[in-house]
Amino acid sequence: MTHPRLSFSLKDRFGGFVVLLLFGPPGCGKGTQARMVSSWLGIPAVSTGDLLRAEVGARTPLGVVAAAIMETGGLVGDSLVNAMLVRRVEHSDCARGFLLDGFPRTVAQAGFLDDYLASRQLPPGRVIHLEVERHTLIDRMSARRQCPVCGRIYNTLHQPPRSNGVCDNDGAVLIRRKDDHESIVRQRLKEYDELTGPVLHHYCGPRLHSIDGGQPAERVFEDITAAIQWASEREPSSAA
In the chain, count of helices (H) and strands (E)? Predict the structure, then answer.
């Protein structure tokens, strides 16, 4: 698809810097939207899951500590995740801003991010929340199938393979992941609501933009870009 043309300049709006926080329940298409918005604005999409895996894989000091915690079945605490995030967003590719996918997960992390941005005299984050009806999410995730060889994801309802049950790339028999069974999907959605509800409440107000994530991906993206541009028109320009 063709991305809409930017009708504003990041140099002149948001103080020359934009921070977007992307929220949405499992199965809402958040990863797809993160990639599209990142490409559109020319800022990196930072996934805390990928960030954690990269730190552990590179055996950085932070990664070594995180690996030791995970090997014992523990959860990596806020302070360690916060430190990894700061390390990442201070890279040169974040000079104009960044999109966060999966952070903040707690109110404490949200408070840390607010304080960090304020300490650097950067604009506060703007929140995009993808809302999708529960039954739609369950249908989407229950219909997902994955190739055990190449890892490609299919959806039997909306993006099926050319031949029923086998991967287009290598002909391997597709599998249903354990966490895509309906009972587990329902539990994951319940946990998401319990964890994310307080964080969204922290951001309630003009910084929070709710988007109907049940639409086709292209339409969701159009609504996100419209919300961002609407916000930019109300943000004082750096020249003001």
Answer: 8, 7
> pTM score, two decimals?
0.81
Tell me which of 13, 30, 126, 145 is the catalytic residue: 30
Domain extents for the chain? 14-43+96-234
Q: How confident is the prediction along the chain (240 residues), in pLDDT tens digits per residue?
A: 445 555 455 544 555 789 999 999 988 989 889 999 999 999 999 988 888 888 888 888 888 888 887 777 777 778 888 998 999 999 999 999 999 998 998 999 999 999 999 999 998 999 999 999 999 999 888 899 999 999 898 989 888 999 999 999 999 999 998 888 888 889 989 999 998 999 999 999 989 999 999 999 999 999 999 999 888 776 654 433
Tell me which of 120, 134, 177, 190 is the catalytic residue. 177
Three-state DSSP at 208 gives strand
The CATH code that applies to domain 14-43+96-234 is 3.40.50.300
Is 144 part of the annotated catalytic residue set?
yes
> 139 pairs with which residues across the strands?
none
For residues 193 and 145, the answer to whether their CB atoms sit within 8 Å is no
